[in-house]
Amino acid sequence: MSEANKNTNERHDSKVKRSQQQSPSVARSSSTGERSASARIIAEQQPVMRSVAISPASHQERILLREPALQRVNPGGLGIRPPRGVDLQPQLLDTAPTKQRGQPRIGGKSKSLSSLGEVRVWHVDHASLTGRPDDFPLLRTSRLVHSAPAHMISKRISDCIQSRSIRSKFSKSDNNGNVAKCRNTEFCKFTISLYSGEDGGVLVEVHRLCGDCISFMKDCRAILNSAEGNDELHPSEDKPLFLRLPVSEMKFLKTASLPPLSHKEEADCVNITSELLSSHQCDTKMLGMESLVVQTDPLKSPKSTAIMASRMILCPNDSGNQSFNVHNYIMSLLIFADQDAYSTPEGSVLTSLEDHSTKLRNLAMSALTNALSLFAAENTLLTIISPHREWYSNVLIPKLLQDLSTAARHPFDACYASRCLSTLAESSVDFVLVMKDAGGYEAVASAQEVGAREFAMLARDAGNYHNILSCCV
Q1: What's the mean pLDDT when you consider all of the chain?
Q2: Which stretches in the chain have pLDDT values below 50?
Q3: What confidence tens digit (pLDDT) does each residue in 112-156 have?
Q4: pLDDT of 332-372, one tens digit each?
Q5: Which of 118, 307, 313, 408 has the least CB density, counted as fewest CB within 10 Å?
Q6: Kind and range of the H or E element at 166?
Q7: Cross-sheet strand order for the sheet of 179-183
C-alpha cells in the first residue's frame, strides 16, 4: 500500500516539475499575445482624404482660395485671359482693350435701361397681406404699424430705400409674398417683409441675411421709422467726428506727445497691405483691399501714409510696387473683373464667389477714387499721371464711362466711376474732350435717370459730373 502511494506521489511530482518548466514560456507567450492584441486595438486608422466636385468642369467656375486668372492679365491689353496655372506678370500697355462681345455700347440703350423713366415704387395691396408664419419667433427688428395702410407703408419704404441708395428687388407676385430683397452700400443683404398684424395693422419685419450688423442696424432703424411716417434723421446717423475732421486737426492730437512716425514705419504699413493683396487666399485679399481703402483716405490715415499708398495705385513704376505691383492689380480688377457680369441675366441671384468679386472690384474703385481726390486736392494729379497720360485717356476713361452707362446693373460702381471722372475732368481739359468724344453725355444721362429712380447717391454724383462736363468747354 505504501509502495503504490509512493509511485503515485512520484508521478504527481514529475507533473508539477514539467508544469513549472513550461510556465515561463507560456507566460511569455501569453504576455506577447496580450501586447499584440493591445497594439492592434490602439493602432488608429488614418483618415482617407477625399474631394467633392462642386460643379461640372465644363462650367469653368473658379474655386475659392485661388487667385483668379484675370488678376494676372495685362491691364490695357487685349483682354484675353491666360490658361489656368499660367502666372503672367502684369505689364502696363498703351493699347486699349478690344471690345468684348456682349458688353453694352456707351451711349446706346441696353436692356437694363428700358424702363428708366418710370418711378420705381413698391406697391403692396393691403388686402393681399397674409399672416406671419409662426414657425420661428418674431424678430426684434420688426414693428407693427397702425397709422397707414400697406400701400402707403410700402411707398414710404421705397422712398427711404432710394434716399439711402439701397439696391432692392421687389416681389412681383403674391405667390412670392410681399418681400423686398435689399443690399446696401456696405454689401449687407437683408429682406423687408410685410404681414397683416393685429387689429388691421401692418407688421414690418427686417431680416438681416449677411453682412455688417452695424451698417444693417442703421438702415433698419431708418426703414422702420419711415414705415411709421417718421423720416427725421436719427441722432446716430450723423457722421462721426473722424469723418468730418482729419485726425491731424483734432484737439487731442495737438496736445498729446506722440512719437513721430518714421518713413520706414509708414512704408511697413503699406507693404503689409501689399502682401495681403498678393495672397492667393480670397479672404486675405479682401482684407488687404479694405486696408488699402482706409490707407488712401486722409481722414482715416496720416496724410503721408495716404500719399504713399495713393502713389502706388496711380504710378506703376513707383518704388513701392517692386515686390507687388498694386497699380496693375487695381487696374486689372477695374478693367477685367466684370466681364462675366455682362453675361449674367439681370435680376439673377449672384453666387458667393460672384458677390465676392463684385465687392472686391467696388473696393478697388473706392481706393482709386481716394487716390485721385487726394492728389487733385494737392494740385499734383497731372504731375503724378503724366508719364502714363495716354493710357488713362485710351483705357481708363472709356472703362469708367462704360461703368457709368451700366448704372442700372452696377449702381455702386457707377457712383465711384462718376467721382473718378469728375476728378479727372477738373484736372485737365484734354480729359474732358476725350470724355465727350467717348459718349460722356449719354453715359451720365442714363446714370442720372437710374439715380433719380433708385439711388440718391448716384443721382448726386452723376449730377456733379454732368455739371463739370458742361462747364469745361
Answers
A1: 76
A2: 26-27, 39, 55-117, 234-236, 341-343
A3: 333 444 557 888 888 888 888 888 888 999 999 988 899 999 999
A4: 999 886 555 444 555 555 667 778 888 999 999 999 999 99
A5: 118
A6: none
A7: 142-145, 202-210, 189-196, 179-183, 167-170
